[in-house]
Every structure is written in structure tokens, then in C-alpha cells.
Amino acid sequence: MSRPTTISEVLHQLDIIILDAIENNNRIGYFAFLYRRVTAEILKEVQLGNFEDNARMETFDVTFANYYLDAYNGYSTNQRISVSWQFAFDTKNDTLTILQHIMLGINTHINLDLGLAASTAMNGLEISDIEKDFNTVNAILGNIVNEMQDRLSRVSPLLFLLDLAGKNTDEEIINFSLKKARELSWYNANLLWGLGIGHQDAAIHQMDKTVLSLGEFIKAPKSKIVTYALQFLGKFEEKNVGRVIFRLREE
């Protein structure tokens, strides 16, 4: 597939990934579904003119999406990709909870890709000009994740056990990859932008390793109680990817 140049083309390619995941019962589809929701919401906001610079936002969002699509296509064709995306995709066959599969995708796309996208989109421009729209994208993501978390109880009926295992542990997993990630991704964007194209490889490599470590934490939390709770609730989750996505899609 050729790289998309519009948000509508991004949505089309995400639809293909989701359909393939449903047909092959591939858990990679969980994050792809969430990301499609985020992307569709950004397109709606662009069409409503709710960003400071809507044309720039479309360019930025497509740049951002292409980091995920390139990683997915590279993984599918056994090409070398970032170690953090490799780790996230490799968990597709692991018996993790639906929440963990979603958060592994969020972790890499926000903690690594978002900073890269902002730096790339603002190359030769003043990066501070995009800060407000950058934060708006993060807020949209947060809202969609909250929506998905509410809907997860439809396919993960014992999700409440995470609250019993630790104080709002499910929220802590979310916060771990979102609230801190918002600050980290903006810091990374400024760092990469300051280094400039052609001088970023070492920094990107270090960011990739850090994000991999965060992914390992999401896959295997240090708390034995939380780990047990995740394993237990996972036994009662819906296992069919198509049915999970269908239930999450329901209004």
C-alpha cells in the first residue's frame, strides 16, 4: 500500500488492518481500532475548524499515522522496525488482557512516534507554533481512551478486579502511558527538533529503548497482585477479536 497523504486515506488503511485482524483473530487489531477512533475524531475536529491551523494539523496527523503504518507494514513483511514496536506487535500471541494489548500500542505510538511526528512536521518551522494543537490531539486521545475503558467492561467483565488489586490500578496503567507520555512526547519533540534532521539517530535510538522498557512494564507489572489480577480477569475476557471489536464499536 502507498503511504497515505490525507486523514481519509489513513482511515482507509486502518480499516484494512482492522478487517485483517478480525479475519485472522489477531490482537494487533485492538490498538488499530482505538487508533482509528482517535483519527476519525481528529478528522472531525479538522473539518469543524477547531484547530489553530487545520491544514497543518492534517499534515501533522498523517505524518503521525505513517509512523504506525510504516511499523505495521514493516512488521508484516519482516523488515527491521523500532524495537518498541517490534515488542508491541510480538505480544499479539501472548495471553495478555485486552487493556494491555491496547496500552502497548499507545505506549509506543505516543512515547516514541508522537515526538518524531511533531519534529518532522515542524522541520524548518518554529515548533512552539504547534504546541496548542499538539495538546489538543493529546486531549482527544485521552477522551477516546476513557471511552474505550468504559466499553471494555462489555468484553472484560472482571476488569474491576484491577481496582481491588491496587488503588485504581487500571487508571494507573492508563495514566502511565498517557499523562506522563503527554509531557514526555512534547519534550522529545523539542529535543529532536532542536537536533535537526540528520542528527537525531542516537536520540531516537535511546528513546526507542526507553519506550521498550515501558512496554515491558505494561506487559509484566512488578506487582505480583496486579499480575495475578490481570491473569485472572484475562481468563474471563472475550477471546474472539471480531466480537471484541464489534462490542467496543457499539454505541
Low-confidence blocks of residues = none
Taking the alpha carbons of the first and last residues, their distance comes to: 31 Å
Order of helices and strands: HHHHHHHHHHHH
Helicity level, as a percent range?
Answer: over 70%
Number of domains: 1
Report the radius of gyration as a whole number of Å. 18 Å
**DSSP, total strands:** 0
Silhouette? globular
* Total DSSP helices: 12
Provide structural commentary.
It is a single chain. This protein is mainly α and 251 residues long. It has one domain. It has twelve helices and no strands. The relative contact order is 0.14. The mean pLDDT is 88.
Descriptors for this entry?
251 residues
How are the elements arranged and paired?
Layout: H1 7-24, H2 28-47, H3 54-76, H4 83-90, H5 98-121, H6 131-152, H7 161-165, H8 169-177, H9 179-195, H10 201-219, H11 224-235, H12 241-249
Short description:
With 251 residues, the chain is mainly α.
